[in-house]
Amino acid sequence: MFANGVYLRTGQIIGYKSRRHILILRMASCMIQRERPKVGVGVFVMSSKHPNCVLVGRRKGLHGAGKYALPGGHLEFGESWEECGQREVEEETGMRLVGIRYSTVVNAVVPTENYHYITLFVQGHVDLQHMADPTNLEPDKCEGWNWVDWDRFLPLEDLFEPLRLVRLQGYNPFTAQTSLHLV
Question: What are the residue ranges of helices labelled H in the chain?
Answer without folding.
Answer: 19-30, 81-93, 161-168
